[in-house]
Write a structure and sequence with these properties.
Layout lengths: L6 E14 L16 H7 L2 H4 L7 H4 L12 E9 L2 E12 L2 E9 L4 E3 L14 H4 L4 E10 L6 H12 L8 E8 L2 E7 L10 E6 L5 H7 L1 H45 L6 H48 L9 H90 L4 H7 L12 H44 L1
Parallel strand pairs: 6-9
Antiparallel strand pairs: 1-4, 1-5, 1-6, 2-3, 3-4, 7-8, 8-9
Helix pairs in contact: 7-8, 7-9, 8-9, 9-11
Amino acid sequence: MTDTALRLKNPSVTLYAFHLCQDLSQELEQLRPDADQLWQHCANLSEPLGIPELKSLPEKIPSPLSQTGNTTLTYTAPLQLPGSPLTVQVYPVKIHDTYALDLTLSCQNTTVAASEFSHFNPQGCLLASNIQASLGQTLVLYGEPVGTPEEDRTLADACVDGFFQGTDQKPEFMASGQLFGSPIFAYDNGKEKPTEQCHLLVWLNRNPETLSLVEKTSLSFFHLLCCRSKILFAYHEARWCYRQTRALYSQLEQEVTDFKELATQRDTRLEQLKQKLTDMPSKTVDYAGYLRDMKDHKNAIATNDHNYDYWLNKIREHSLEDDSIKFLENFLNQRTKRFRKQIETDLNYLKPGQQLFDQMLGSIRGIVDIEQAECDRALEKALRDKEKADQAREKQLERWIALVGTGLAVSGISSQTDAKPVESVIDPKESLDCPSAGVTPCLTYSVVFVLFHVGVGFIAALILNGIINLVSKLVLKGTGSRE
């Protein structure tokens, strides 16, 4: 089939982008630091689209942005397609905690070849890698086919090829259906990370009621795609938390092994256990935090699952009898349920680890407390023993000083008494002053005199020491009997 046969009338491309502007950790009216990132990246489209006025988009968006949205900005791109200029409409809105963008590029009253969809995506400016919406985005290629219905799938593929011309990010065909009497084809690249996802729908208008029904359900469709993006984002975040928790699980498993080895090293383990008490709590807290976040993401999926079903029912209310929207229903019935089951499986796998690590941390803390108490008691006992030994040495020194002092005192007193009896013992014939004796007998007398009095002092000290010992024993015995 030639390219000229694959043509559409009144083509348009709509970008639905969703960016998280608030976190649970923040106050209700507080915005994330990167909340305006979506508007900034949209403003960056001014260069590839050739619309200088688009650069000032962030200043034209009211703050705070309305939940219902009341601002639609319209621009005209200099890029010309046969018969009509390119019109660009920007519709920013806040949906609960999310900034959402509806950016539509359209050409009216013109017919283009499928390959010319590249004009709607110059330099790949509408791809997720450029828009960087934190929750992801969806692209809708719309037009009125010129050929027969049998050519629709081929035409849709050709539109996708044209739109992604010059890029390596073309998504794969996933499913098809019919909405409001017109065929719709879904494409996806299967990426998990929201800023790398490429979800694209090709909607070929073959029913005169399609356009009016699209206008009636545009808000429901917008919210439906928002819920879809938030579900995928929550699952991506849950998987990220799972990987972080698995890494911590491996680290803490090694801590368990080290803890068992320390059980055999009683003499050296106290300091190592204290180090573990310093390092492990932060890891254990992080582990518990990731598990909590996984539960939050699971709840977010459940909430948006319910909301997705609500908006899908709103669309069903306007659907035609021969419509088939299983490609929308399957996301709810298959992927969302699989996401929730996977997170539940991950939590069941990781929860016992948290209990194990909490118990191990408690065991380490108990051992450290016990051993630290034993060390403190041992140190206290050593200090008491040292104090007693010091006191004993001090008393012993005082006792010796007292005994020596007593002995010297007695010796001094003895030396001052009448020396005659002593002289008569030494030599009855000589007087104390040795008037007639020689030098040698006098010296002999002096030494004996000194030794005699020292001996008297020594005997007195011994008698005093015996008295002190006897009194000490009596005191100890009396103290023991009272106890």
